[in-house]
Amino acid sequence: DAKTTQPPSMDCAEGRAANLPCNHSTISGNEYVYWYRQIHSQGPQYIIHGLKNNETNEMASLIITEDRKSSTLILPHATLRDTAVYYCIVNQAGTALIFGKGTTLSVSS
Amino acid sequence: EPEVTQTPSHQVTQMGQEVILRCVPISNHLYFYWYRQILGQKVEFLVSFYNNEISEKSEIFDDQFSVERPDGSNFTLKIRSTKLEDSAMYFCASSVHRDFLSDTQYFGPGTRLTVL
Q1: Residues of A with CB below 8 A from B99's CB?
Q2: Which SS3 state, helix, strand or coil, does residue A82 take?
Q3: pLDDT digit string (tens) for chain B, length 116 residues
Q4: DSSP structural state of residue B86
Q5: Do A43 and B31 touch (CB under 8 A)?
Q6: How close does chain A come to B39, measured CA to CA in Å?
Q7: What is the 3-state secondary structure (H, E, C) of chain A?
Q8: Is B46 in a helix, a strand, or coil?
Q9: How near does any CA of chain B get to the CA of A98, in Å?
Q10: Distance of residue A31 Cα from the nearest chain B Cα, in angstroms
Q11: How far is CA A51 from CA A36, A55, A93, B23, B92, in A?
Q12: How far apart are CA B25 and CA A109, in angstroms?
């Protein structure tokens, strides 16, 4: 079973920031927090990952709480093409990714 | 930008037939994975492969499944005798090396397998 908890769905207006929460209260010290998304039935697309520091790349920002028990993925200016299922996964290098049901983000104009 | 490729994009087969799904991982990657997603369900891990042997497998990956790296570029998943319930999207993924503290897996576009 997935070690993370995410809301099943969220809505966001185009151009606004989308903040997707994730709880991972049982994360262990050598596990990273990964975010992927899946558009329709395409292959999961890597977005960002982090250990304990906040991270930012060209796609998104990742905010991890100090106790590492939760995190938030931020899409700063959501577009219609960001409509997808977003998965938060805790993972140790070289091991299987365990996918949950994720959060279905709907971006509307 | 390097990417994982998979062929074919769609495979239709009769129940009981053998199928081989092919993947070309990113060239400098050493860890390879297969996942599947039955329509409307979660993405499920099948198997991981490193240094020419299986490093981890799930309960789904039974004797009907096998993986192989037949040459320096391809990574294949074989299903010996397909069943209706094998109908799914099959995703290949690759990552650089497990000794890195974090090791991002990159996914291919998938092969849709339909068993009739």
Answers
A1: 93-94
A2: helix
A3: 789 999 999 999 999 999 999 999 999 899 999 999 999 999 999 999 998 999 999 999 999 999 999 887 899 999 999 999 999 999 999 998 766 667 899 999 999 999 99
A4: G
A5: no
A6: 8
A7: CCCCECCCEEEEECCCCEEEEEECCCCCCCCEEEEEEECCCCCCEEEEEECCCCEECCCCEEEECCCCCEEEEEECCCCHHHCEEEEEEEECCCCCCCCCCCEEEEEEC
A8: strand
A9: 7
A10: 8
A11: 15, 9, 12, 30, 25
A12: 37
The one-letter code for the residue type at A82 is D
Determine the length of chain A.
Answer: 109
Q: What are the Cα distances from residue B109, in Å, to A76, A102, B2, B77, B97?
A: 26, 19, 13, 15, 21
Q: Which of B56, B102, B107 is facing A43, going by the closest CB pair?
A: B107
Q: Are strands B88-95 and B106-107 parallel, antiparallel or unpaired?
A: antiparallel
H or E element, residue B92: strand B88-95
Using a CB–CB cutoff of 8 Å, tell me whether B105 touches chain A. yes
Six token digits for residue A11: 């809505």
